[in-house]
Amino acid sequence: MTIRTRFAPSPTGYLHVGGARTALFNWLFARSQGGTFVLRVEDTDEARNTDAARQAIFDGMEWLGLDWDEGPGIGGAYGPYFQSERKGIYDAWFDKLHAAGRLYEDAGAWRFRFERRPVTMRDLVCGEVTIDYRDESNTPDMVIRRSDGSYVFHFVNVVDDLEMAISHVIRGEDHLMNTPKHLQLIEALGGVAPHYAHIPLILNPDGSKMSKRDAGAAVGDYPRQGFLAAAVVNFIALLGWSSKTEEEIFTLKELVARFSLEAVNRAPARFDLEKCRWVNQQHLAKLSESAFAALAEPFVRQAGLPVPDHFVAVAAAVKDKVRLLSEVPDAAAFLLTEQIPLDEAVVAKVGGAAAGLLEKLAVAFEGIGEWSGHEAKAALHEVAVAAGVKPGQLMFPLRAALSGRAHGPDLGAILGLLGRARSIARLREFARVLAHG
RNA sequence: GACCCGUUCGUCUAUCGGUUAGGACUCCAGAUUUUCAUUCUGGCAAGAAGGGUUCGACUCCCUUACGGGUCGCCA
User: Fold this and answer.
1) CA of A285 to C1' of B10 (A)
2) CB-side exposure of A348: number of CA atoms within 13 Å?
3) Environment class of residue A101 by beta-carbon count within 10 Å: exposed (0-12), middle (13-18) or buried (19+)?
4) Does residue A134 lie within 7 Å of nucleic acid chain B, judged by its CB?
5) What are phi and psi of A205, to 5 degrees?
6) Can you tell me the distance from the alpha carbon of A166 to that of A193, in angstroms, rounded to the nearest whole number?
7) Which bases along strand B come within 7 Å of a protein CB atom?
8) What is the DSSP letter of A382?
9) What phi, psi does A372 have (nearest 5°)?
10) On the CB side of A43, how many CA atoms lie within 13 Å of its CA?
11) Which of chain A's termini has less CB crowding within 10 Å, N or C?
12) How far from A387 is each of A356, A358, A362, A391, A401, CA to CA, in Å?
């Protein structure tokens, strides 16, 4: 059997995480089964479609790394892949239904007459589900063609899945109740129904339905917030699916190797941005220093900071301190600019008594033969011993003097990157600030 | 309201009748002869409730509660 899945978004808004995960699961299933992944744009609602939304979908898919084998920009044997260009196909199928006597006109629109009997579907995730179509009040005959002549979702969706030989429809659980309708339509059309898998919805942290405006909802926001595509893909895969092992950090390739519909959950999952950040950090950690630097550079530039020749070393120093790429500018600013803001709380914590020690340290730094972070730390050690204090007592003031803050990279790395002249200058400036209050 | 799906630590989850119910995020406490958002160790924390079935139930069945979904000339 040839596996063919599809992602069929409508271009009426940005790509949101729910849609992205639906796309991901379809993509993963196709890739893991050696099948074909189709992208089809369901743009039948002219009033709500926008070019920007269509582009956002393409951009989002591309960013996530979900490439399609057939669809816009690629083509394929089952096109066109925009529903707005398939009217002739729909007309033909409509005529067939009409000839079969399954349609009737209602106020200018055309309705499909359901067979009034129980309809059972076998869902790959939800199992067997039966809806009783004898209850007409709950299942009114549906409009498939509007009075303006355009076709509605149920009809075009079903026709296209048939026309495009889709074997597996993986979609959100909000479509579960639509499936019996589609099954009836397919039967009337004389087609063979695809397999269905309805995946649970993604909810907000408070359990409400996730929708636009909710934090984390728009895929397009992730890149500029400093997330890696690999991390976002990894995280949303974990919403409603698990590897059944204790591992949870996966690349797209690893997900393909492990994915199965059987392992998809039935209960909706809540979106936890905190864990998404952690997943991002895990993926950041796996990056090489140069790759990390290349990804961080745009953020640094956007923050108005200079990018020196030794930027890779600067980025490397803060690499394991950040969860998001967008945190790099703040974390590395003191290594990139001459003017460093002093955190008043840190100044207060260091206290004026340290000023003398810092001056001694500055003198010791001047006496170092060949400057290096290692040598500078050794000098610090000597100054501390000579003064009768523990090295640790001197390290915090030094860190404060060099970076203006309490937290940051290893002191040796900072000293090496800053160089002798700047290190000494900051030491003396900080000592002056301490002395004057 | 009717119909459908669901319910394990606060969150994401493992468990497919017999486990001290495991892991991860968050949080807390230690450790890494400075710090740390890194790393390591440890800790807090769960089977919605009530009935069955069974020698035995988180696991199977029923009821209730709660959550979500659907009932459009939106998709």
Assistant:
1) 27
2) 3
3) exposed
4) no
5) -55, -30
6) 9
7) 1-8, 10-15, 22-26, 33-39, 67-75
8) H
9) -160, 160
10) 22
11) C
12) 10, 11, 14, 10, 19
* Bridge partners (DSSP) listed for residue A189: none
Tokens of A73: 């920009």
User: CA A244, CA A233: separation in Å to the nearest integer?
Assistant: 18
Q: What is the dihedral of CA A132, A137, A139, A145, to 10 degrees?
A: 160
Q: Which residues of A are catalytic?
A: 212
Q: Quick one: CA dihedral A315, A321, A324, A330, positive or negative?
A: negative
Q: Of all helices (H) and strands (E), which one includes residue A276?
A: helix A273-286
Residue type, A350: V
Per-position DSSP letters for A76-145, written without gaps between them: -TT---BGGG-HHHHHHHHHHHHHTT-EEEETTEEEE---SSEEEEEETTTEEEEEETT-TTTSPPEEEE
**Euclidean distance between CA atoms A407 and A368, whole angstroms:** 26
Which residues in chain A, range 243-302, keep a C-beta under 7 Å from any nucleic strand B atom?
A: 244, 246, 248, 263, 265-270, 272, 274-275, 278, 281-282, 285
A79 touches strand B (CB under 7 A): no
> pTM for the full model?
0.93
CA-closest candidate to residue A64, choices A257, A324, A252: A252
Mean pLDDT by 10 residues, chain A (437 residues): 93 91 97 97 86 94 97 92 95 96 94 95 93 90 95 96 97 95 96 96 86 80 94 95 93 96 94 93 92 95 91 91 92 87 76 81 87 86 82 84 86 89 89 76
Task: State, as a whole number of angstroms, the distance between the CA of A19 and the C1' of B12.
Answer: 19
Whether A191 CB is under 7 Å from strand B: no
Contact, A330 CB vs strand B, < 7 Å: yes
Residue A21 CA to B28 C1' — how many Å? 34
C-beta separation of A399 from A342 below 8 A: no
> What token pair was written down for A350?
């260091």
